[in-house]
Amino acid sequence: MRRSDTRVVLGLHRSRHDRGLLESALDLGIRNIDTAFNYAGFRSHAILARTAGDLLPHFSVSTKVGFFPGAEGRSEHSLEPARLREALETTAATLGRVPDVVLLHNPERSLGDLEPAAAADRLAAAAGVLADAAHADLCRSWGISTWNPQLVLAAVTAVGPSGLARPCCLMHRAGILVPARVLDIIDNLARALEVTTARRWGMSPFGGDTADGIWRTVALQPLMAADEEWSTVAAAFRLAFALPPVGRVAVGTNRPEHLGELVRALDLRVDDRNVSRFRDMLAQRQARAVG
Fold it and tell me: Burial, 217: exposed, middle or buried (Cβ in 10 Å; 0-12, 13-18, 19+)?
């Protein structure tokens, strides 16, 4: 059994809620799993409690609230405080334990049609619900998870430094496929929320799927230490910790051997200077495209 390591989070967005996979994660030293109220057709928490309830105490469990069952089997997004509170209560009851972290799930989905002041008020109210939940022992801590952070940053800026409860962590995209503009917005949002690198969580390090054609052509060698041996998948995962800098990365898989490869990738070293140059190159390319 590998020594416990908090840097890898087993994400259950696309992963099977399989007891064997969770047992393999524990054997590999993984102690973090991430799910959401709406995963697996709003059944993720119930499936975990039923199939692996005895394993859950060995994990730090993070989950998310923000999506709810809608009409005709579709999901809908809401930051309405009463719905968030009910979801938080249901989550703890269904899991059979208090989640370690609850993340506000893609709040930008409910901010896009609002004026800045109204968006700020809505985000502040939702953040207050999660902060109150932590005080009420419905979760141990809370954070924000965002896919498109621009609207969240605008709302946080409009709220001001004293108008928003401060989250313990921030989850966002990470990896070499994240556009330069998004990397900059993420960094600005982390600073505005006063979230340190250690409390930033990357997600979607492969942009969806390691089988995508880009992973057969992308050249990662300049970004890795010269004396390292690695696969493209391992290097891409390791680089997700640097683009932008994060303390842990959530990744989904259904194969224990793939999970093992990612855990071993933590020992790889990157070329920090070339990673910085790569990010500068992305920014310059973006500026030329805009200009």
Answer: exposed
